Every structure is written in C-alpha cells, then in structure tokens.
C-alpha cells in the first residue's frame, strides 16, 4: 500500500497557506465563485462543489474521498489554521493566535511518529474546546434549534444504538468538542467516516429547508458536521491525539492572565457540573423534554 500522506488545506481566496507536501491546497467552492487560486479545485471529477455555501469545507472532504487514490493518511486543515506538533502554542488554551507575518517561520511539519500512530488507527484532532453549556444547548443558542432536533430524529430512525448513545453523551451530557472539522486519520477510517457522514447529510438536506436562512446560518451542514464528527469519534471509541491549533491572524489578540484563569475555572466548573447532572439512565433520553427556552 502506498504511504502517501495528503493534508488538505482548504482555501477560498488568495491568502497565506501551506503548499509543501504533505500539505495539499484545495480551492473549495470553486463552482460558486469566479476566483482561480491556481491549484486543485473541488469542482473537478466527482464533486459537490456547488453545495459549498452550506457544506463549507465538506466539499473539499468529499472531493478527496471520491477522487484521491493511493493515499494512506488523509487530513484537513484551513489556510490559516493548522495543528501544532511542536509546542509553539499556549499549553493551556485550545488555540493560539499567531501574527500572519510569522507564517513562514512557523514549524508546520508533522512528525513521523505521529503519522505512524495514525496509520495504526489513532485520529489527530484539535485540542477540545469547552462550551459554557452543553453542545446541544450551544447549537440551539448559536443556530436554528429546530435543525438539531431534526438531526436527532434522523439519527433515531437510521442509526444503531451505539451511535445514539454517543450522540446523547456528546451533545446532551457534554460541553467539549473538537472544532473546525480538522483531523488526520488513515484512509480506512476516513472512508468509513465519509460513508456515514454524507449518508446523514443527504437525508438532512431533504428534511431541512434553508432557503430563508441568512448566509451565516446557510453554513448549516458545516456546523452540523463539526458536532457529528465528535459523535462518530465517541461512538467508534477511537484513540485520539489532541493537538492545539495555530491560528494565523493579521492582528493577534493579547490573552491576559485573567482570561486564562477564567478559562481554566470555567473548564473545571463545566466538568464538575456536567458530571453531577448526567441522567442515570441513557433510556431517559427518549422521554426528556426540551427546555421551553429552546423551543
């Protein structure tokens, strides 16, 4: 089997981005804009590029799934967001902002030891981010709450019990998640994940009318897939390697000691509170009422 490694770098406009192997720049949404970035487009071969405004980086993932060959390790990052394998980020926070001018001097290489573990079945994920509420509540607050209830209905009617239990644990009981749809995994796991994810996405597309949504909320399937990725990892019980994310910005915000302390306190409080309030039986989920303020 080929040992080729490809880490997709999703781009949609001219900007800084990693281009040296194993990084593989891909222009997402090539069918819905007139920009030519001069490298691989997601509208060639078998593709869903036209769906980019609602699927976000998933159009790049789909293109890779359907068109790449002889790849043993596949990953995804963004033109300004990368995994940090060399302790360049804050040791506490899930991501650290780097000034864009430091892009060329930042070590974005992936150690051979990491790739070996990935080939064995580990999945590299972003360092988990903590929400102030459960992931279910967080989605309802930031997005269209009806949509996550449709997701639940689709999962209950199409998925096995272990997937439902993972959803319950991640979304209803948990407040931590791996963001950005970023990952590095071996091709076998990737193929399994894509079969599962896009099968669900196809059903959700038929069930959810987004014609009246604003441009932000129309990114629904990108938002939902972030949560479903966490459900999939939990359900499959894969071993993960968490790494902080380097986020290149033009003007980094200075993080004060007070902000770090608040983050740590919130993390501890959330962990304790979610542990204490977990329903004793998973079966209770089917009878749980949705809080009125989320209806």
Portion in beta strands: 15-25%
Structural class: alpha/beta
The low-pLDDT segments are 285-295
Distance separating the two termini: 51 Å
Number of strands: 11
Q: Please estimate the helix content.
A: 25-40%
Indicate the radius of gyration in whole angstroms. Answer: 19 Å
Overall domain count: 1
Spatially, the strands of the biggest sheet line up as: 2-1-3-9
Helix and strand topology:
Layout: E1 4-11, E2 23-27, H1 52-55, H2 58-67, E3 71-78, E4 81-83, E5 95-99, H3 112-120, E6 123-126, E7 129-130, H4 135-142, H5 145-158, H6 161-173, E8 176-177, E9 183-186, H7 187-207, H8 220-236, E10 240-243, E11 245-249, H9 257-276
Parallel strand pairs: 1-2, 1-3, 5-11, 6-10
Antiparallel strand pairs: 3-9, 4-11, 7-8
TL;DR?
It contains 9 helices and 11 strands. By secondary structure, it is an alpha/beta fold.
Give keywords.
295 residues; disordered C terminus; alpha/beta; single chain
Would you write up a description of this structure?
With 295 residues, the protein is α/β, with parallel strands linked by helices. The protein has one domain (4-294). Helices cover 39% and strands 17% of the residues. It has helices at 52-55, 58-67, 112-120, 135-142, 145-158, 161-173, 187-207, 220-236, 257-276; strands at 4-11, 23-27, 71-78, 81-83, 95-99, 123-126, 129-130, 176-177, 183-186, 240-243, 245-249. The strands form 4 sheets. A 4-stranded mixed sheet has the order 2-1-3-9, sandwiched between helices. It has a 3-stranded mixed sheet with strand order 4-11-5, with no helix packed on it. α6 (161-173) crosses α8. The longest helix is centred in the C-terminal third of the chain and has 21 residues, at 187-207. The protein is globular and about 50 Å long.
């Amino acid at each position: 089997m080929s040992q080729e490694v490809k880490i997709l770098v999703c781009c949609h406009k001219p900007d800084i981005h990693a281009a040296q192997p194993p990084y593989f720049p891909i222009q997402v949404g090539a069918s819905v804009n007139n920009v030519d970035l001069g490298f691989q487009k997601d509208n060639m071969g078998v593709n869903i590029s036209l769906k980019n405004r609602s699927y976000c980086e998933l159009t790049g993932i789909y293109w890779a799934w359907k068109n790449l060959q002889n790849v043993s390790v596949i990953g995804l990052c963004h033109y300004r967001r990368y995994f940090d394998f060399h302790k360049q980020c804050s040791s506490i926070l899930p991501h650290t902002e780097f000034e864009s001018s430091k892009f060329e001097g930042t070590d974005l290489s992936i150690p051979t030891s990491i790739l070996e573990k990935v080939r064995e079945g580990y999945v590299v994920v972003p360092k988990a981010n903590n929400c102030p509420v459960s992931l279910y509540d967080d989605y309802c607050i930031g997005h269209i709450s009806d949509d996550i209830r449709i997701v639940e209905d689709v999962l209950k009617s199409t998925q096995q019990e272990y997937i439902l239990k993972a959803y319950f644990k991640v979304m209803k009981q948990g407040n931590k998640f791996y963001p950005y749809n970023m990952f590095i995994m071996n091709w076998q796991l990737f193929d399994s994940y894509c079969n599962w994810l896009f099968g669900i996405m196809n059903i959700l597309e038929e069930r959810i009318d987004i014609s009246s949504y604003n441009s932000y909320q129309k990114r629904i399937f990108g938002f939902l897939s972030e949560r479903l990725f966490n459900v999939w990892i939990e359900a499959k019980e894969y071993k993960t390697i968490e790494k902080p994310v380097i986020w290149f910005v033009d003007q980094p915000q200075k993080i004060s000691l007070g902000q770090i302390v608040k983050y740590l306190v919130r993390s501890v409080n959330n962990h304790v509170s979610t542990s204490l309030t977990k329903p004793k039986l998973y079966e209770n989920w089917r009878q749980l009422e949705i809080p009125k303020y989320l209806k």
